[in-house]
């Protein structure tokens, strides 16, 4: 099979987001592998683990409420996107972000201090780029807990430096999982392309295929 490679003048920006242990990492890894097999340039970022992402500022902001947290996260996100996302997209690279705006819409609206519309507006005020595709992964709380019990606790989790389900009550976890469903609906109403994946029974190759097919259609990828 002859593959006709289209040189992309502009890349794509894709955000993969969902509750802790809902399969984001596995799916992103497979997407990158599949895109590489298609000879499409791609890279990924995980904002909470990037060196220039100031987690201490965010932890301090928690004392002042969800609005302060959202504002601080968005400032950090803007900084990262300016340095790691926008330049790559301009070079024709497909950038996949592990977490992003959907996390803020889902987590910082739990207590009612902010609405999803508030969080959305805060992002637009800072000119945060909208993704070409938002992928929301979600599973049952029971399955998320089962997966977490199988993996080792990371350094960041021990220090509670990022969004982890291991130290979250069952009641709050239920709210988070439910909120991601609402986030999916909210983003669709805003006109964004959204793929919602029920990852209770993980089919990593199948889930990746759905996303890669979207990418191929978006860039008019051609094989002959």
Helix and strand topology:
Layout: E1 3-4, E2 13-17, H1 24-37, E3 42-46, H2 55-61, H3 66-90, E4 94-98, H4 101-107, H5 116-125, E5 133-138, H6 141-150, H7 155-158, H8 170-189, E6 194-198, H9 204-219, E7 222-223
Primary descriptors:
disordered N terminus, 224 residues, Rossmann fold, alpha/beta
Report on the structure:
It is a single chain. The protein is α/β, with parallel strands linked by helices and 224 residues long. It has one domain (13-217): P-loop containing nucleotide triphosphate hydrolases (Rossmann fold). The protein is built from nine helices and seven strands, in the order E-E-H-E-H-H-E-H-H-E-H-H-H-E-H-E. The protein has helices at residues 24-37, 55-61, 66-90, 101-107, 116-125, 141-150, 155-158, 170-189, 204-219, and strands at 3-4, 13-17, 42-46, 94-98, 133-138, 194-198, 222-223. A five-stranded parallel sheet has the order 3-4-2-5-6, with helices on both faces. Strands 1-7 form a two-stranded antiparallel ribbon. Helix 1 packs across helix 9 and helix 4 packs across helix 8 (170-189). The termini are close together.
């Amino acid at each position: 099979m002859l593959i006709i490679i289209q040189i992309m003048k502009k890349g794509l920006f894709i955000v993969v987001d969902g509750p802790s242990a809902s399969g984001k990492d596995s799916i992103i890894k497979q997407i990158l592998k599949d895109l590489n097999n298609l000879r499409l340039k791609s890279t990924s970022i995980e904002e909470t683990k990037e060196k220039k992402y100031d987690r201490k500022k965010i932890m301090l902001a928690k004392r002042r409420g969800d609005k302060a947290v959202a504002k601080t996260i968005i400032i950090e996100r803007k900084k990262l996107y300016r340095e790691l996302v926008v330049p790559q997209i301009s070079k024709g690279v497909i950038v996949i972000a592990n977490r992003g705006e959907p996390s803020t819409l889902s987590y910082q609206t739990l207590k009612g201090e902010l609405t999803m519309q508030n969080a959305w507006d805060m992002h637009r005020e800072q000119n945060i780029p909208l993704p070409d595709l938002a992928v929301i992964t979600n599973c049952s709380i029971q399955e998320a807990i089962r997966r977490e019990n199988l993996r080792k606790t990371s350094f960041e989790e021990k220090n509670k430096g990022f969004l982890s389900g291991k130290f979250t009550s069952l009641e709050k976890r239920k709210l988070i999982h439910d909120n991601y469903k609402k986030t999916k609906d909210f983003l669709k109403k805003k006109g964004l392309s959204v793929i919602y994946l029920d990852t209770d029974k993980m089919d990593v190759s199948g889930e990746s295929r759905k996303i890669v097919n979207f990418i191929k259609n978006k860039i008019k990828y051609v094989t002959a």
